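User: Let's play a game. I give you a shape written as tokens, and you guess the letters that built it. Ready? Here's round one.
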């Protein structure tokens, strides 16, 4: 029995190594064959090249994490879906930054931030946004109301017209999501 287990375990390790090697080979092939096309596609969507390379790189990073990549039959169609998600995140972050700049413009001159304070605040906002990426909108809203506005779960439940139990569940989901984002290095 032990011999069977050892043979099975060693065989599984070899299969895993072969799958890993073929996956890396597939990613390298996709990169060679489709990276230029993807950058061009992104340039057209962005009406310029300033961020196209960065977004194409982000798309390939997401590909690296994608399960069952070997099953994809149309790489460009799959890349388009991944790149659209990256574009959405890019535009969302840009809107967030613009909303912040608009709010800053409304502040009296003597309450304005220095360049350094602005850079630190912008970085903090982007980190929070990145950590919350992928959460449903209501979960994000509950989390931000608690963490940024200082509202209690009861106050959040009243504002969002939901039960306290639902807000507690949302908060657990958001906190777990943030911890997993740190563990996975998505910051």
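Assistant: Ready! My guess for every position:
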């Amino acid at each position: 029995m032990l011999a069977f287990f050892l043979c099975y375990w060693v065989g599984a390790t070899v299969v895993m190594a072969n799958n890993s090697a073929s996956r890396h080979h597939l990613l390298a092939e996709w990169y060679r064959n489709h990276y230029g096309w993807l950058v061009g596609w992104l340039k057209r969507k962005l009406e310029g090249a300033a961020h196209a390379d960065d977004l194409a790189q982000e798309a390939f990073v997401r590909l690296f994490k994608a399960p069952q990549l070997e099953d994809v039959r149309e790489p460009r169609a799959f890349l388009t879906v991944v790149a659209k998600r990256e574009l959405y995140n890019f535009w969302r972050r840009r809107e967030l930054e613009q909303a912040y700049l608009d709010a800053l413009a409304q502040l009296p001159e003597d309450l304005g931030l220095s360049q350094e304070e602005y850079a630190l605040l912008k970085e903090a906002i982007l980190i929070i946004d990145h950590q919350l990426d992928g959460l449903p909108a209501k979960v994000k809203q509950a989390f931000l109301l608690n963490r940024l506005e200082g509202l209690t779960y009861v106050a959040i439940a009243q504002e969002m017209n939901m039960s306290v139990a639902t807000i507690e569940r949302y908060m657990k989901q958001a906190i777990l999501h943030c911890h997993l984002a740190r563990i996975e290095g998505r910051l």
